[in-house]
Amino acid sequence: MGYDALLWLSFGGPEGPDDVMPFLENVTKGRGVPRERLLEVAEHYRHFDGVSPINKLNRDAIAAVEKQLAAAGVDLPVHFGNRNWHPMVEDTLASLTEAGAKRVLVFPTSAYGGYSACRQYDEDIERARAAVGEGAPELVKLRHFFDHPLFVSAVADGVRAAHASLGDVPGVRTVFTAHSVPESADLAAGPPAEGGRRYSRQIAEAARLVAAEAGIAEYDVVWQSRSGPPQVPWLEPDIVDHIDALHAAGVPGVVVSPIGFVSDHLEVIWDLDNEAAERAAEHGMAFARAATAGADPRFAELVVELIREHTHEAAPRKLSPFPAGGCTINGAPCAIGCCEPAKRPSR
Prior knowledge:
Blueprint: E1 5-10, H1 20-28, H2 35-46, H3 54-71, E2 78-82, H4 89-98, E3 103-108, H5 115-132, E4 138-141, H6 149-165, E5 173-179, H7 183-187, H8 198-214, E6 219-224, H9 239-248, E7 253-257, H10 266-282, E8 286-289, H11 297-311
Parallel strand pairs: 1-2, 1-3, 3-4, 5-6, 5-7, 7-8
Keywords: Cytoplasm, Heme biosynthesis, Iron, Lyase, Metal-binding, Porphyrin biosynthesis
Binding site for Fe-coproporphyrin III: 52, 121
Catalytic activity: Fe-coproporphyrin III + 2 H(+) = coproporphyrin III + Fe(2+)
């Protein structure tokens, strides 16, 4: 039995000033994020007229994938759905169901495992199928791709280009960043038999692979964009704090690669191109931010390769010994207890 479509499943973002607070409330629903933090993040969006670049970036990536699919002779329409803002995944799946789709591949725009990076997409799938009800198509989620050679080479070329942009400054440090998560979430990431920390271990492995590809012997892995209450421990160090530490150690410059992200959405633009860049400038440090993989032509090729693993039984390509996780059906987790969400205290 073949597949009727690809569902491109992403996070979503506001596309106008009136969307910002409703979007942020969707994102943080049930997470106990203080109102003042929402207002602080909302102000970041106002610097960009209330428009997140993420939806346009996804539409551009979808167009590139459609072109690659056509070139590869794969007849598979691509449909766009989001978790937190329009087009909502529930609406997209309802349209696919009405069109008669029976079996659909799902590409989540995250390369990694962990609750936010993987299990939450399973929940999106389960919720969307429940909203559609009887007749909803079978949804088959594609696997993690942090160690796919096309992802690694695209990120590595971004790192090389960022270093080249700084010229001959000696001693520039390469720093890889990813979205921070609570320590408890990272400890629960992956099947229990793995011992946890699938997310941070995959980030570390991706950084190792990219550094090797780019010919970089020494580098750091740090975190960004934490949003939880201050009393909850999150993965550290934060990128801005790390720039302070590098300056104190006499490092003259930094190249920052947002390896945990697939596109230049707002958290990349604000947290790195603004806050991190400004801190480096305060210290008189050279600064360059490497491109994410999403706009690189190899990213579309990667997605088509992941699709062909299902449509044409193509052999998976990967560069690490990590299990090829993330491929699940109808929102089922990879394993019992895999990436369990944190239990929130009852009120």
